[in-house]
């Protein structure tokens, strides 16, 4: 097991693919040997972003996306013949980057966490950690993002406290179990398959 504390002051910023906003990049991975770390070389990305006005989502062919509101409420994503309801915070929705999506904000701006992966390269999961308890973790990369305030976890006999806004990156060569002790966090899980 390898753990790395990702500090909020070290996160980078990058524009949305359509230029409509700014991501806060928390962690990502790109194809080995890629000349540039860009959308074409992306394997996966875990990021947060504010949505402050209604508008279209970026067109991202070949990318699977998970999203969760972590601040504010009232977000709805509309696609032709389909609606994704994120009115309540900490609800995970899944959609593809090919979908033509337009956002609606029913109660003002929101902050969302996104986990994206190139289809066929990785399997991804995104969940909220709000109640103490155990959960299985598969072999792969896991990101525990402390949404607001400190959160406490136990893993393989070790205790960790992740300060608000920071992220604990966990790389597991084999399956394990995570004990969530306290606080509020988002867990992003990535298993490379390609």
Automatic annotation (TrEMBL):
<dbReference type="InterPro" id="IPR014710">
    <property type="entry name" value="RmlC-like_jellyroll"/>
</dbReference>
<dbReference type="InterPro" id="IPR010282">
    <property type="entry name" value="Uncharacterised_HutD/Ves"/>
</dbReference>
<dbReference type="Pfam" id="PF05962">
    <property type="entry name" value="HutD"/>
</dbReference>
<dbReference type="InterPro" id="IPR011051">
    <property type="entry name" value="RmlC_Cupin_sf"/>
</dbReference>
<protein>
    <submittedName>
        <fullName>HutD family protein</fullName>
    </submittedName>
</protein>
């Amino acid at each position: 097991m390898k753990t790395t504390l990702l500090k909020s002051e070290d996160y980078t910023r990058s524009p949305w693919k359509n230029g409509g906003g700014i991501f806060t990049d928390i962690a990502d991975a790109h194809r080995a040997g890629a000349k540039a770390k860009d959308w074409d070389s992306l394997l996966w990305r875990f990021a947060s972003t504010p949505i402050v006005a209604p508008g279209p989502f970026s067109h991202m062919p070949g990318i699977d996306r998970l999203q969760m509101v972590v601040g504010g409420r009232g977000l709805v994503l509309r696609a032709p013949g389909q609606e994704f309801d994120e009115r309540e915070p900490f609800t995970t929705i899944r959609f593809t980057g090919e979908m033509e999506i337009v956002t609606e904000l029913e109660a003002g701006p929101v902050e969302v966490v996104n986990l994206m992966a190139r289809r066929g390269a990785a399997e991804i999961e995104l969940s909220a950690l709000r109640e103490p308890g155990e959960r299985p973790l598969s072999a792969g990369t896991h990101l525990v993002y402390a949404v607001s305030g400190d959160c406490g976890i136990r893993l393989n006999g070790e205790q960790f406290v992740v300060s608000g806004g920071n992220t604990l990156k966990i790389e597991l060569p084999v399956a394990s179990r995570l004990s969530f002790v306290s606080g509020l966090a988002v867990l992003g899980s990535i298993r490379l398959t390609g």
